[in-house]
């Protein structure tokens, strides 16, 4: 079975349990049962993506909207959008400060975003998430390696399986701003 096995043991267990229940397997037994219905797996992946997605969308919106509420930092929306634009493959091993900075420079059309400003924004993500009651936090910036990583394993699954373009458009309408 391939259930898009990305995430913690709990995420994997949830998906396997869902596949078993959808195949009407409700208890353990001595016989092996082959669950090979692709539709069951698609339904499980879709259900879990939606289930995890509700929380992650709210979290991303809360981080992105920090730009509007603080007026001190204009980059949170764009950092979130960079994560969503790249999806799972971009952040799977972490997004480096320089990669984020280059992307922000391209978006700013030469408005001179300094690396230290980007680093300060990334370093403050933990506080932003804490202030907005995002528990557990979904993003973490390591100031030693300069990597932005995912700190909630269900976010990996969401990024790998969700239709991120639709959400990016919604986020742009509600939180988007120019650098």
Task: Describe, in plain words, how this protein is organized in 3D.
- This protein is mostly helical and 179 residues long.
- The protein is 62% helix and 6% strand.
- Strands 1-3-2 form a 3-stranded antiparallel β-sheet.
- Helix 2 packs across helix 8 and helix 4 runs antiparallel to helix 9.
- The radius of gyration is 19 Å and the shape is elongated.
Silhouette? elongated
Give the low-pLDDT segments: 1-5
* Fraction of residues in helix: 55-70%
Mean of residue pLDDT values? 84
What is the CA-CA span between the terminal residues? 45 Å
The beta-strand count equals: 3
CA-atom Rg in angstroms? 19 Å
Strand order of the largest sheet: 1-3-2
Alpha plus pi helix count: 9
Structural class: mainly alpha
Biggest sheet statistics: 3 strands, antiparallel
- Helices and strands, in order, run as HHHHEHHHEEHH
Strand content: 5-15%
Labels describing this entry:
mainly alpha; 179 residues; 9 helices
Task: Give me the secondary-structure topology.
Elements (H helix, E strand, L loop, with lengths): L8 H14 L15 H27 L1 H5 L5 H16 L3 E2 H12 L6 H9 L1 H7 L7 E4 L4 E4 L2 H9 L2 H12 L4
Antiparallel strand pairs: 1-3, 2-3
Helix pairs in contact: 1-2, 2-4, 2-8, 4-8, 4-9, 5-6
């Amino acid at each position: 079975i391939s259930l898009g096995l990305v995430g913690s043991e709990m995420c994997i267990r949830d998906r396997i349990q869902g596949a078993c229940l959808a195949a009407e397997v409700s208890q353990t037994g001595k016989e092996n049962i082959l669950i090979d219905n692709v539709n069951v797996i698609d339904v499980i992946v879709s259900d879990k993506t939606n289930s995890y997605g509700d929380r992650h969308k709210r979290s991303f919106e809360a981080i992105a909207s920090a730009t509007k509420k603080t007026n001190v930092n204009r980059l949170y929306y764009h950092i979130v959008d960079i994560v969503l634009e790249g999806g799972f493959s971009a952040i799977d091993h972490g997004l480096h400060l320089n990669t984020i900075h280059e992307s922000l420079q391209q978006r700013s059309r030469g408005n001179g975003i300094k690396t230290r400003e980007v680093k300060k924004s990334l370093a403050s993500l933990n506080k932003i998430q804490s202030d907005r009651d995002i528990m557990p936090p979904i993003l973490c910036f390591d100031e030693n390696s300069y990597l932005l990583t995912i700190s909630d394993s269900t976010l990996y699954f969401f990024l790998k399986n969700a239709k991120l373009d639709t959400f990016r458009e919604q986020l742009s309408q509600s939180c988007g701003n120019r650098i």
